[in-house]
TrEMBL record, chain A:
This is NitT/TauT family transport system ATP-binding protein. Residues 5-232 form the ABC transporter domain. SMART domains: AAA. The keyword ATP-binding applies. It comes from Actinoplanes campanulatus. PANTHER family: ALIPHATIC SULFONATES IMPORT ATP-BINDING PROTEIN SSUB (PTHR42788:SF13), TAURINE IMPORT ATP-BINDING PROTEIN-RELATED (PTHR42788). InterPro entries: AAA+_ATPase (IPR003593), ABC_transporter-like_ATP-bd (IPR003439), ABC_transporter-like_CS (IPR017871), ABC_transporter_ATP-bind (IPR050166), P-loop_NTPase (IPR027417). The keyword Cell cycle does not apply. Keywords: ATP-binding, Nucleotide-binding, Transport. GO terms for molecular function: ATP binding; ATP hydrolysis activity.
From TrEMBL, chain B:
It is a multi-pass membrane protein. Residues 83-267 form the ABC transmembrane type-1 domain. It comes from Actinoplanes campanulatus. This is NitT/TauT family transport system permease protein. It is found in: Cell membrane. GO terms for biological process: transmembrane transport. Keywords: Cell membrane, Membrane, Transmembrane, Transmembrane helix, Transport. SUPFAM superfamilies: MetI-like (SSF161098). One of its GO terms (cellular component) is plasma membrane. InterPro entries: MetI-like, MetI-like_sf. CDD domains: TM_PBP2 (cd06261).
Length: 242, 274
């Protein structure tokens, strides 16, 4: 129920421009791998390739040993903002992946309500995205993603547009929700503290490939914040970012 | 685009006038009615006094004469037959144009091959005013009736096509990406993202299309119909029955207004508030 990614000598790009060259990275099944890196270094490009939306230029990009050739419901992509269909209510947005999987109508509704409750929006199912706050919209997106029961969740700065408080609440919610799913998570962020709070490992991406790969001591334990080991990890990430 | 612009406007309106909507609304309607009545009075005055400034009002019928004629025609079954005939023509042409225009607009916006294939054709035919196709219509179709529907269709087709194409091209890719990574295929993307996403723009095209469809159905009827409001109006002119000409024009105006309102209303129902 969780995917392993195998990235071997992969080059990625748009048009004539090659963005990532010769990238090697193994993502373990069930782990939360956080990717950080300077703006424009190709984090989103990598994520879109993992999602199957962007073909690779060269090298091998494998999900559970099979080359990634196109999108699949196994690999869900979570966007920064505005990825919900604005003409559908929150509930109907969450029902969408279920409809695509041909889940019967009644069951769809039950599951959608279940996932909305999981993200604390049980009472907001009838609202359109335009009538929800940014944090609520991201929670609906999370519910929609989880409803599809993907084996991997690819998140591209999902909390990047939120204020600090909402962001902290969303991080806690994500940690709670991820406990109940076995999915592998690849999470992109610019926030080193977020990376250290959420990740099992943190990869620092540069134009030349993965610069550093750090094992997070005591992942997802808020009590470790500010302890010397975590501070050391933080320093190391910041060093390789510059 | 239009919906995001409309939303804040609606909010400010409800906020700025929480107490006086009824009184303000009534006074606005009063002004609107007064505007129409004044226009009628000026018309009556100009025609009753046979004013000849530089333009001449001595041959134009007075509103009272027109009202009398309208009263007569309202009791004439032929009047309703003409209206029904024109409505059948315009609704047939418009419905065909809506289906074809939306389908072609999506096809051209979504497929490079279809765009290369169809776009040049559309660009060449589009500048031709639909009414200039009357000779072609006469040559192509065995009956007048089909020719008129064809001309109406052509007139409404292009605004619908162009609006649909623009609306589809302007859709953010993130919605499509989201649906594809949920495992949605081509048809799912079309039905769940492209169609509903383009709907506000499509309805803009439908409104414009309905307007030009009326222009063309009336003109076509004047040239080659044997029933219909346009034909009757032109016929009245040839037998020098000016009040009947004006009744025809007013009828066209009311019908155009009603159908435009119907499209608008349907648009609001279907698009909803986003
Ligand atoms: N659709 C596109 N077409 C062409 N070039 C693109 C496209 N998307 C991204 N690029 C280019 O690819 C490079 C990497 O972009 P990418 O979005 O992957 O960076 P990123 O690491 O996600 O940056 P950020 O942290 O700012 O989101 C950039 O130089 C960008 O200009
Ligand atoms: Mg990015």
């Amino acid at each position: 129920m969780s995917l392993a990614f195998h990235i071997n000598g992969v080059s990625l790009g748009h048009g004539d421009e090659t963005v990532v060259r010769d990238l090697d990275l193994d993502i373990r099944p069930g782990e939360v791998l956080v990717v950080v890196g300077a703006s424009g270094c190709g984090k989103s490009t990598l994520l879109r390739s993992l999602a199957g939306l962007l073909p690779v230029r060269g090298g091998a990009l494998l999900a559970d040993g099979a080359p990634i050739t196109g999108p699949s419901p196994d690999r869900a992509l979570v966007f920064q903002d505005d990825a919900l269909l604005p003409w559908r209510s929150a509930r109907r947005n969450v029902e969408l992946p279920l409809a695509i999987r041909r889940v019967p109508r009644g069951e769809r509704r039950r599951l959608a309500d279940h996932w909305l409750a999981q993200v604390g929006l049980a009472d907001h199912g009838d609202r359109r995205p335009g009538k929800l706050s940014g944090g609520m919209r991201q929670r609906v997106q999370l519910a929609r993603t989880l409803a599809g029961e993907p084996k991997a969740i690819l998140m591209d700065e999902p909390f990047g547009a939120l204020d600090a408080q909402t962001r902290a609440a969303m991080q806690r919610l994500l940690v709670d929700v991820l406990r109940t799913t076995p999915a592998t998570v690849v999470f992109i962020t610019h926030d080193v503290d977020e990376a250290l709070y959420l990740g099992d490992r943190v990869a620092v991406l540069g134009p030349e490939g993965v610069r550093t790969l750090i094992d997070v001591p005591e992942p997802r334990d808020p009590a470790t914040r500010g302890t010397p080991v975590v501070r050391a990890a933080r320093e190391e990430i910041l060093r390789s970012l510059t | 685009m239009t919906t995001t612009l409309a939303a804040p406007a609606r909010e400010t309106r409800t906020e700025s006038s929480p107490k006086r909507p009824a009184g303000r609304q009534a006074s606005r309607w009063l002004i609107r009615a007064a505007s129409l009545v004044t226009a009628l009075l000026i018309w009556q005055w100009l025609t009753a006094t046979d004013a000849t400034l530089w333009i001449r009002f001595d041959r134009l019928p007075t509103p009272v004469e027109v009202a009398g004629q309208l009263g007569l025609l309202l009791r004439d079954p032929l009047y309703y037959l003409d209206i029904a005939q024109s409505l059948v023509r315009i609704l047939t042409g418009f419905a065909l144009a809506a289906v074809a225009g939306i389908a072609a607009g999506i096809a051209v916006a979504r497929s490079r091959l279809l765009s290369d294939l169809l776009q040049p054709l559309f660009e060449v035919v589009r500048p031709i005013p639909a009414i200039a196709l009357v000779p072609v219509a006469i040559l192509l179709f065995p009956e007048n009736e089909q020719g008129i529907v064809f001309i109406t269709f052509t007139a409404a087709f292009f605004p619908i096509l162009v609006s649909t194409r623009h609306a589809v091209r302007a859709l953010p890719t993130v919605w499509e990406d989201a649906v594809r990574t949920m495992g949605g295929g081509r048809w799912r993307v079309l039905l769940s993202v492209v169609l509903p996403g383009a709907l506000p723009g499509v309805f803009g095209g439908l409104s414009v299309g309905m307007g030009v469809a009326w222009i063309c159905v009336i003109s076509a009827e004047m040239i080659s119909g044997d029933y219909g409001v346009g034909y009757r109006t032109w016929h009245a002119y040839t037998i020098v029955d000016y009040p009947a000409v004006l009744v025809g024009m007013i009828t066209i105006g009311v019908l155009g207004f009603a159908t435009a309102g119907a499209v608008e209303l349907l648009g609001r129902r279907v698009v909803g508030d986003r």
